[in-house]
Predict the structure of Phosphonate transport system ATP-binding protein.
Amino acid sequence: MSLQFDSVSLQLGGTDILRAISLSLAQGEQAALIGPSGAGKTSLLLLAATRYRPGHGSLNLLGDNPWHVSPRWLAGLRSRIGMIYQAAPLPARQRVVHAVAAGRLGQMSGWSALRQLVWPDDTAAILDSLQRVALADKLWQRCDQLSGGQRQRVGIARVLHQRPALILADEPVAALDPRLADDTIRLLCDEAAARQSTLLVSLHSVELALAYFPRIIGVRDGQIMFDLPREQVHPGVVSALYAGERLREPAEPPAPAASRQDLRC
Ligand SMILES: Nc1ncnc2c1ncn2[C@@H]1O[C@H](COP(=O)(O)OP(=O)(O)OP(=O)(O)O)[C@@H](O)[C@H]1O
């Protein structure tokens, strides 16, 4: 298994965020996480990225329990896991070339990594990753001069450059227009398939999830509500997942013109 959670729980600030999550993904498998805002999708991905440590249960990533290995081994494991964030954490003054180069720093020794940060020697590979997210012309641009969608695509290029065995993506297309969102999800799926990488992506768009992922995992209130092949995710299943998730009830539809006239009479 590439990723295995056994009854994993997470508490943050004294609150239960995830409860008894059991989930496994085989190497090369692709799955989408869907669910209402605040359900726990990001937290689940951050657990898989080893950014959080579970309170209970055990997890195995690429053959190791990250919390039972040495710090050095953990660093090696992290270099094989790529995380795409909703808002890419790019230092403002950093140039795009360095932000993408950072994808491979974990795979290098200390001195090489430091040198890459100043003068990356694999600009051709960096350019190739940027080309794939249509940002080749931004190679030397400063990150704080990019739009939100461009920053998100730099975060994706960084993970393409990293070539990890496990790709985790938290709403990777939140800042992109519909056509770019579609192209980007297809790119991630193709990249993962070509490298036999495992891909777990959280998406607000159920439509995109159903269009591209064979397996759909519904999360609500910190628990897995369903884990189904996409063919079994019927409208009723989706409605139950998002039930009650509205800022307010929709207004009564306006009365047809004829009856409004009736009222005036
Ligand atoms: N650091 C934290 N401390 C305390 N509570 C947190 C923390 N981070 C997240 N939460 C809470 O955990 C719950 C799950 O949040 P999470 O970001 O995982 O949800 P999500 O499904 O990704 O939501 P969205 O779709 O809005 O991004 C939320 O109720 C959130 O308020």
In short: The domain at 3-240 is CATH 3.40.50.300 (Rossmann fold). Residues 178-195 form the longest helix (18 residues). Confidence is low (pLDDT under 50) at residues 254-265.
